[in-house]
Design the sequence.
């Protein structure tokens, strides 16, 4: 082998070693679904809020335990919590709550009580109202002379601690439902939910504890990012292994049936391996980690990467004793280069997509194709010096097929058949529908979706994934704007709004309460004396009127602020900001209407934003597809002439129409991924027609190369139909249908020779 071949071989081996070491570490895979999505919010504070909330939820798992009866529910939950703690893989496990000191709230808020609430003074004598307050069983925590009309007690009772369906029962957080008592157990992870080591240990502990807890009549519901990340990883690995195995077997079968040569089989696999090793190494160097979808889709590139080797092997088989590897490679090199360029253009179009995951797929595929092409160019000719034994039967069969195809191409009814096919495809396209909802890209397992839906129903947690971002010049303005938003309640579908201002009133509201208390002081003092209070006790009612304001900083230092701490974003480059989270089952339009006209209040709907971005890029990609068709047509026209360029483009266009019609018939919506698949099919379809156009005198070698390349592409991308991810399944079916029809109709390119 020549020096350039050895240099490329050494480089590929280095790529393979690097990629193997990184993958063996177990930390080179990215299972964070958010990392695959683009940043959609123009406001950086909104993106920061999204990341903050995501980190808060992804570090915790939530388990709900139901037993045969309430006593069994409590026993099962306590046993589960003990087993999880004994596993020593979680940072903390919480089932029983520590004894709550009811006076902690009183001690914190009491110094600010004159700023928090003011009594509604009844007309006339206040003494009866004050005496009635003395007999009231409502807990205030304050001596009667410091809260004579219960305004402070009313403030404490109104704090929204119970914003979910949970209630405290015998020291456990539980929710009573029609099927029994569900007791909640939570566990904090020791690390990221996307860390494979953390995943394995935590899932093992939960599964083992669940197995020990299992009894007739008991049920365990689970949710959390940990389970979704593990589900996505396991599903991707299963699909990758299955698609790789079936794709490899299919390609091996093509080699065995066609060439009957171990040398060609090994060289073909070497082309694929070189492409994959190069792609893995380049992506790991460029991105640090590989998205799961990159691995799954990357397996399908094997079917395209082997096309260049197939075309060279087909000419090797058909050359017989006249075989000259160097001369043959020089003759087919223009077709190989044109095929590579059109494929790279197709994958390169994915780089314009807003998805980081999709861009990584584009880089992976482009590098894999380039690596395979370089292997064919630099290595294969030196290993194909000897001619292959003649296969007269195969040559005769290919000659008959070619002759029949040329007959069809020249038949006078062929244009009519094409026109009828176009009419049929056009009619089917009427049933196409567009769906850009990002939630259709990933489909978790049915068990996970069922558990999450039930937990959300029990806990009354919002399923919309949307929240309000509140911004202001300072802390006081943020709190005031939160209060303005809370004043918009009731909002359809919203059970409540979790907001910091429910615990810390805005300075304006605190000043208003203080002014009212000052104004009420003379009447209140008189009423207390009339009710029998001693003068010194009545005088004490003015305590706290000179206190300073309650601030968010002071509230953040309390233990009961822990659940809402992530909602306070604090200082930002535009002042200060916070998050208000709706509970219940709201829809995005209702939430959008709720914040209309409120300055500084923005609805952040990540799923909706990404879906709108997908719709925008789908439209952009559609125009890009039209531009690519025009560009390829101009290139082919400049090389072959206008008439021939139309004949070379026609199979690809028919393939795209057929793919859209097949998607409509199968119920697949048109998405950004559908358009991307069509862009790729354009490059592949043009490859085949160009390969046929550049055939030799007999033409059988080019026909065999196109048949093998098309078959391997169909095997690889058609296997994506086995994926349980809807977007991948639609992508594979679209591309396979387009390539199949483009191959079958590529005979249109056989009418003329350059």
Sequence:
């Amino acid at each position: 082998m020549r020096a350039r071949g050895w240099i490329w071989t050494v480089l590929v081996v280095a790529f393979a070693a690097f990629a193997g070491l990184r993958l063996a570490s177990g930390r080179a895979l990215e299972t964070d679904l958010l990392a695959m999505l683009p940043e959609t919010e123009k406001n950086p504070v909104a993106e920061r809020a999204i990341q903050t909330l995501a980190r808060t939820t992804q570090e915790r798992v939530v388990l709900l335990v139901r037993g045969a009866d309430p006593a069994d529910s409590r026993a099962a939950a306590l046993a589960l919590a003990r087993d999880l703690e004994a596993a020593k893989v979680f940072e903390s496990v919480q089932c029983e709550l520590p004894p709550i000191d009811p006076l902690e709230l009183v001690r914190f808020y009491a110094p600010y009580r004159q700023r928090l609430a003011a009594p509604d003074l009844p007309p006339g004598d206040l003494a009866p109202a004050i005496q009635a307050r003395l007999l009231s069983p409502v807990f205030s925590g304050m001596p009667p002379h410091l809260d004579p009309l219960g305004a402070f007690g009313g403030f404490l009772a109104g704090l929204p601690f119970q914003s979910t369906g949970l209630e405290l029962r015998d020291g456990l957080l539980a929710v009573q439902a029609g099927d029994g008592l569900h007791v909640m157990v939570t566990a904090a992870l020791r690390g990221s939910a996307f860390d494979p080591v953390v995943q394995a240990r935590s899932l093992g502990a939960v599964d083992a504890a669940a197995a020990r807890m299992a009894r007739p009549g008991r049920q365990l519901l689970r949710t959390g990012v940990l389970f979704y990340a593990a589900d996505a990883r396991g599903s991707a690995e299963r699909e990758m292994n299955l698609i790789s195995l079936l794709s490899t077997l299919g390609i091996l079968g093509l080699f065995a049936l066609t060439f009957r040569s171990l040398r060609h089989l090994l060289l073909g696999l070497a082309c694929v391996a070189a492409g994959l090793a190069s792609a893995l190494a380049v992506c790991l160097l460029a991105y640090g980690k590989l998205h799961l979808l990159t691995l799954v889709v990357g397996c399908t590139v094997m079917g395209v990467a082997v096309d260049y080797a197939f075309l060279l092997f087909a000419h090797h088989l058909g050359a017989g004793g006249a075989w000259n590897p160097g001369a043959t490679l020089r003759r087919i090199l223009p077709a190989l280069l044109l095929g590579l360029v059109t494929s790279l253009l197709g994958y390169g179009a994915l780089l314009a997509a807003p998805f980081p995951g999709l861009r990584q797929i584009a880089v992976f595929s482009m590098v894999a194709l380039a690596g395979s092409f370089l292997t064919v160019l630099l290595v294969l000719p030196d290993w194909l010096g000897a001619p292959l034994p003649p296969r007269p039967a195969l040559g005769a069969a290919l000659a008959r097929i070619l002759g029949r195809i040329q007959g069809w191409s020249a038949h006078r009814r062929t244009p009519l058949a094409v026109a009828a096919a176009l009419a049929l495809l056009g009619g089917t396209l009427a049933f196409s529908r567009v769906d850009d909802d990002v939630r259709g890209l990933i489909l978790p397992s049915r068990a996970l979706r069922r558990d999450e839906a039930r937990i959300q129903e029990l806990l009354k947690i919002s399923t919309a994934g949307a929240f309000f971002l509140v911004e202001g010049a300072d802390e006081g303005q943020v709190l005031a704007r939160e209060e303005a938003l809370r004043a918009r309640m009731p909002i359809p579908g919203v059970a409540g709004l979790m907001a910091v201002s429910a615990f810390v009133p805005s300075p304006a509201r605190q000043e208003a309460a203080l002014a009212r208390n000052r104004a009420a002081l003379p009447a209140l003092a008189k009423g207390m004396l009339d009710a029998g209070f001693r003068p010194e006790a009545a005088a004490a009612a003015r305590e706290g009127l000179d206190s300073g304001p309650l601030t968010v900083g002071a509230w953040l230092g309390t233990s009961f602020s822990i659940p809402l701490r992530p909602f306070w974003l604090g200082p930002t480059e535009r002042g200060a900001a916070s998050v208000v989270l709706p509970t219940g089952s709201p829809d995005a339009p209702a939430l959008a209407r709720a914040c209309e006209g409120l300055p500084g209040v923005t609805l952040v709907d990540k799923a909706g934003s990404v879906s709108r971005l997908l719709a925008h890029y789908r439209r952009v990609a559609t125009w890009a597809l039209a531009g690519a068709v025009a560009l390829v047509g101009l290139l082919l026209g400049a090389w072959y002439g206008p008439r021939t360029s139309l004949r070379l483009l026609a199979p690809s266009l028919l393939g795209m129409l057929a793919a859209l019609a097949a998607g409509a018939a199968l119920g697949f919506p048109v998405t950004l991924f559908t358009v991307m698949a069509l862009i790729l099919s354009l490059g592949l379809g043009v490859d085949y027609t160009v390969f046929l156009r550049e055939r030799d005198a007999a033409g059988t070698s080019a026909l065999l190369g196109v048949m093998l390349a098309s078959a391997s592409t169909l095997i690889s991308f058609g296997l994506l139909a086995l994926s349980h991810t809807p977007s991948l399944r639609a992508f594979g079916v679209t591309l396979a249908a387009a390539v199949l029809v483009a191959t079958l109709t590529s005979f249109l390119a056989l009418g003329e020779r350059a």
